[in-house]
Amino acid sequence: MTHSHFQLAFGDGISHTSLELVKDVKLLQTTLKDWGLLSVNDIDGQFGQKTERAVKQFQGMRELEMDGIVGKVTWAELVKSDSVEILPRPDSDGAVPEGWNGNKLIIYRELQRNKFTNVQIAAIMGTWMQESSLNPYAAEPSPGTGLGLAQWSYDRRSLLPPFTGNRATDIRNQVDLFVQELGHTERNAGTKLFNAQDLLSAMHAMDLYERQGIDGSRTQYAQEFYDELKS
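-> structure tokens emitted (231 positions)
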């Protein structure tokens, strides 16, 4: 019997969200659970840091290269079979600008998941680049001041979900909070942002959301992101 799988790595099911990949990540996590390396609560279809650590631990146990990538050799050891076929990667996620990876790619995919257009995404990411350098753990030193991607502060900071230690999950939680605010407490900014069809309008909406006083380089960052998304 031939076992057919995708090559899997960190970000699959998170920044790459095709149904086929999510299903294969869940199968990987189930298999790692059977090896005693994950729990049933870890089976979520998201190849985050915990899954990556489990893969590396398994690779070490089996004296494989501990690169955290589940290719043909690692799959063969996982499923105890000499007959493993690596499938072509699905392309349903759409094109990603060259060089977009890590936090930048995860944030982009999460904003796509929430139906933002590229011009709106550029404005959001340009603002967050200025605020936090796209770091979900960025924190200002004084109590009550900025924390997270959007540098939530004071009463808004208390709404930030607790950190899980999983970068991809924490980014998803913070994007979800952002979207929730746009639909409720920051509805005025949300209406303007979702209706924005050009970068200037989207940036005005983000200024309203952030209540920022210093523009810094956010407009420049947004333009650079938008240029990359258009290329």
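Strands lie at 3-5, 84-86.
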